[in-house]
Amino acid sequence: MKINFSVVSFVPSSAQVAVVGSVPELGSWNVDKCVQLEPSERPQSDMAPSFWYASLKVEGAKSIEYKFIRRRSQDVGWEWEGSGSGDNRKVDLVQEGEDVVQAASFGSILKGAQGKGGSEKVLAIPVTQFLDPAGVSEYSHTTRFYMNVKNQNSIHYNKIIEAMYVGTCPRCVEHLDMLKRDLGVTALFNLQTEEDALNNYPDPKSHPTMEGRTTDHVEEVAKRRGLAYVWMPTTDMSTQARARMLPQAALVMYGLLAGGHVVYCHCNAGVGESPDEMRREEERTEITAERVFDF
Q: Where does the CBM20 domain start and stop, copy by copy (predicted)?
């Protein structure tokens, strides 16, 4: 069975990210035998999130414990996530004949995904964030990155697959024009709440204050630039809200991609909801989008 690992981390351009764990395929906790993860795009600085992934075959395991590790360069040692074995990540697998199902509440099995060597099963573990030392939370990372991008009135994104980008919210019509002109984007997939969508209004010149701003206007701004628009508001920093959003969002995203769109998916900072939706869509398109994990 093939298992897909993925993580978001704030690291410099010289960094390496890897996964190590309890089974031989993950090095049996030996960092010298860890599995290197690949970035979707090489990070520019540790002020911005970068997405890392790896796919490998694991045979005969009923339970796997693992951690992500990283180092700022090849000249320094590996930094382990979390604060000891209590923060180990765990996947429990139950063998049922030729099928393998995940006993844990996260992840999903794609049965019969066609690889280069024929039919095989794939366990796609949802994208997660690197567990930083105590006191450094997802909220603090996201807030730091969000404020940095906001203060610069800039936009940050990563190309995930050929027709999908994930990033920060567009803050002006110039950002929308850039997405369309430089990236070929034809559709926006917005996961912001109503409050966030209005606070980060994409045409502040026409509505410099909150008065008069509406979510309908946000859609109109996108459509005036020739972009299809989907809005699926999702509460920030909420695991439950993300879980409720992902199934239907994946169906809509699949429809956009199948229809030939190039999609830009965003929340506020492009760190929480957007990567989750992107990873879910990778799961859904695993059979046809083999290039994502090089089957």
A: 1-108
Among 215, 194, 196, 278, smallest CA distance to 242 is for 278
Is the CA virtual torsion 275, 278, 283, 287 positive or negative? negative
The closest alpha carbon to 274, from 173, 176, 154, 127, belongs to 127
pTM (2 d.p.): 0.62
User: In the chain, where are the structural domains located?
Assistant: 2-129, 138-292
pLDDT value at residue 76? 94
Given pLDDT bands bounded at 50, 70 and 90, which one contains residue 135? low
The answer to whether the beta carbons of residues 26 and 35 sit under 8 Å apart is: yes
List the 263-266 sheet strands across, edge first: 157-161, 164-167, 263-266, 187-190, 228-231
**Which of 34, 169, 265, 267 is labelled catalytic?**
267
Give the mean pLDDT of the chain. 80
What is the rounded average pLDDT of the residues 243-261? Answer: 88
Torsional sign, CA 79, 82, 86, 88: negative
The string of pLDDT tens digits covering residues 193-222 is 999 999 889 999 888 888 889 999 999 999
**CATH of segment(s) 2-129:** 2.60.40.10
| Domain 138-292: CATH architecture, name and number where available | Alpha-Beta Complex (3.90)
Phi-psi region of 268 (alpha: psi -120 to 50; beta: other; left: phi over 0): alpha
- CA–CA gap between residue 3 and residue 280 (Å, rounded): 14
Give 114's strand partners. 119
For 247, how many CA atoms within 13 A lie in the half-sphere containing its CB?
5
Parallel, antiparallel or unpaired: strands 128-129 and 99-102:
unpaired
